Amino acid sequence: MATEDEPGVRRVAFLIGQLGLGGTETQLCLLARQLHDRGVEPHVLLLAKGGPHEASLREAGIGVHHLGFVPFSSGPTALPRNLRAFARLVGLLRRLRPDVLHAFLLESYALGVPAARLARVPVVIAGRRSLSFYKRDRGWAFALGKASTRLTDHVVANAAAVAEDARTIEHIPPHKISVIYNGLPPSAFTLVHPEKIDTHLPVILCVARLAPVKGHRFLLEAVATLARQGHPCTLVLAGDGPQRP
């Protein structure tokens, strides 16, 4: 991996909360590895903790940095610990001197955008990965997101619907938003042996993490409604998570 002082090296810092098995974390790691293979020097900055992706990033020669933020619910020491973590983030950005900071998800761009401005990072990008409905129910989150977005140079959405939501709900100017769809490695298209589903009914497949935010309960209600109306089907769920039971 190149050093911070090596001249002529293009450097990108990615900021995210953790490196679990979610879609955003997977996309970040794919992007970081592809940039590394193309001669760009990526660094992954973690607000809180690592995760399953961390080892593969380090094996690829990509820098992974833990910042040490903690939930405010963790007790009276949370505020001073988070202030130190914020100072650590600003100091790290000053030392790495990235050409771009790309922050993924609300907590990352809420903290990363002001830190990047203090560290004089030339370009700051906020990554939009979902619709804003979850923020509208929390006024502080919606206001924080809008305020930090004003300080960014650009917003990258992973779907046209996400970009439209950002324009119409958060009133982000159209020229400040680009849509870049999720990418997949060639291995994702490798043929596998099909799963046998023993049913004579139409099959509905949902591929998603089994978490409340994914809205499986609406799908279950819809399938139950179809059954009551005489149109039963077989529902197949691919994924895992806290709502599995």
Describe this structure in a few short sentences.
This protein has 245 residues and is of the alpha/beta class. It is built from eight helices and nine strands. α7 links the parallel β6 and β7 (177-179).
Which terms summarize this structure?
8 helices; 245 residues; 37% helix; 7-stranded parallel beta sheet; alpha/beta
Strand content: 15-25%
Q: How many helical elements?
A: 8
* CA gyration radius, whole angstroms: 20 Å
How would you write the strand order of the largest sheet?
3-2-1-4-5-6-7
Structural class: alpha/beta
Biggest sheet architecture: 7 strands, parallel
Helix content: 25-40%
Mean pLDDT: 89
Apparent shape: globular
Multimer state? single chain
List unreliable stretches of 5+ residues: none
**Distance from first to last alpha carbon:** 44 Å
Topology:
Layout: E1 11-16, H1 23-37, E2 41-46, H2 54-59, E3 63-66, H3 78-96, E4 100-104, H4 106-118, E5 123-128, H5 133-136, H6 139-150, E6 154-157, H7 160-168, E7 177-179, E8 203-207, H8 216-228, E9 234-238
Parallel strand pairs: 1-2, 1-4, 2-3, 4-5, 5-6, 6-7, 8-9
Task: Please explain how this structure is put together.
The protein is of the alpha/beta class. It is 37% helix and 18% strand. It has 8 helices and 9 strands. It has helices spanning 23-37, 54-59, 78-96, 106-118, 133-136, 139-150, 160-168, 216-228; strands at residues 11-16, 41-46, 63-66, 100-104, 123-128, 154-157, 177-179, 203-207, 234-238. The strands form 2 sheets. A 7-stranded parallel beta sheet has the order 3-2-1-4-5-6-7, with helices on both faces. Strands 8-9 form a two-stranded parallel ribbon. It is globular, with a radius of gyration of 20 Å. The N and C termini lie far apart (44 Å). The model has no long low-confidence stretch (mean pLDDT 89).
